[in-house]
Write a structure and sequence with these properties.
Blueprint: H1 7-25, H2 35-42, E1 47-51, E2 63-66, E3 71-77, E4 88-90, H3 95-105, E5 118-121, E6 130-136, E7 141-146, E8 157-162
The structure holds copper (I) ion.
Length: 163
């Protein structure tokens, strides 16, 4: 059952297309914080660590880079003392749809909907907890990741670069 999501979905797709074209036309990355952050964003690794930031709805990394088609081991550490979070990787342009369906899926499903656009996900991790998953990195491209705990996906998100 696909739902028409209207304008936000259109905007999301448009933004994704813009990002795809921007990425295709230019391999130079924005310099935002000097060499160290550039390296961490560009570094491609089969072992990935990501965490939540304090009591905020944010990941400590908004960009991850992995080698396409390889088996990836990802550990998500939840540093909050109160909030539950997860890490959900989706097909390009599907983050908002998956986030909204996740709310409906509810706590019993860890807010992860039964949707083929979900490529990989951790469990819903309790405060101070962590979860490690393995998954095959998708074909080369840019894929959104989100936390699907109810209300988080609009702000708690990032992009996985598979290359
Ligand atoms: Cu979250």
């Amino acid at each position: 059952m696909k739902k028409h999501l209207g304008l936000p979905s259109v905007i999301s797709v448009s933004v994704s297309l813009i990002l795809i074209f921007a990425g295709a036309g230019c391999t130079k990355k924005e310099d935002s914080g000097g060499g160290a952050s550039e390296k961490s964003a560009a570094q491609s690794d089969k072992n990935v660590n990501i965490a939540s930031v304090g009591e905020t709805m944010a990941y400590d990394k908004t960009e991850l880079t992995v080698p396409a088609g390889q088996d990836i081991t990802l550990t998500f550490k939840n540093n909050s003392t109160t909030l539950q979070h997860n890490w959900v990787l989706t097909q390009p342009g599907k983050d908002n749809e998956v986030g909204l369906e996740g709310i409906k899926a509810g706590l019993s499903k860890g807010f992860v909907p039964d949707n083929p656009a979900v490529l990989a996900h951790t469990k819903l991790v309790d405060a101070n907890g962590s979860d490690t998953i393995t998954f095959k990195a998708p074909p080369a491209g840019d894929y959104p990741y989100i936390c699907t705990n109810a209300g988080h996906h609009m702000v708690m998100k990032g992009t996985l670069h598979s290359k």
